Amino acid sequence: MRDKVAIADKAQRLVDMTAGFCDEYLDEEYEHLCDKLIKKMGRKRNVPYLSGKMEIWAAAIVYALGQMNFLFDKSTTPFASADDICNYFGTSKSTTSQKSKLIRDMFKMRYFDDEFSTSSVLKNSPYSDFVMMSDLIVSNYELPPELQDLLQRK
């Protein structure tokens, strides 16, 4: 049986921890994505963060979202390094990276993921110029102008 009180308490601790990092290094959009990921983890049959150190889970959540959104690339804004994340939470890079991989695999997170990407990453997605029509992938630019207009309004 799942202990809803324990799940809610630990989830709130994770939200507070990740929000602290986002306030210091990132932005409100990352804070929202962290919150969304924590809530989704809390709905799993076996809630992963019920065991283990909360600092590692918090660091891994930020790390996983950072990897999906090119956070470690100095040319992006906001930018934070893996060391920034690990130093803030007091975790080792290898442990944080391993937990992050577990989270990414658990939710099948990929680059340009609609659910966990920032708006700037989605806007620059190489896939944004394509649409699926009758089981075929077609470039938006090859569609008639009226269909292009219809897709833009979506």
**Looking at this structure, what is the CATH superfamily of the largest domain?**
Cyclin-like
Q: What would the CATH topology of the largest domain be?
A: Cyclin A, domain 1
The H/E string reads HHHHHHEEH
Low-pLDDT windows of residues: none
Tally of extended strands?
2
**Spatial strand order of the main sheet:** 1-2
Q: Rough shape?
A: elongated
Under CATH at level 1, the class of the largest domain stands as: Mainly Alpha
| CA gyration radius, whole angstroms | 18 Å
Question: Overall mean pLDDT score?
Answer: 87
CATH architecture assignment name of the largest domain: Orthogonal Bundle
The portion of residues assigned to helices is 55-70%
Which secondary-structure class do the elements indicate?
A: mainly alpha
Q: Beta-strand percentage?
A: 5-15%
Number of helices: 7
How many domain regions?
2
N-C termini distance: 42 Å
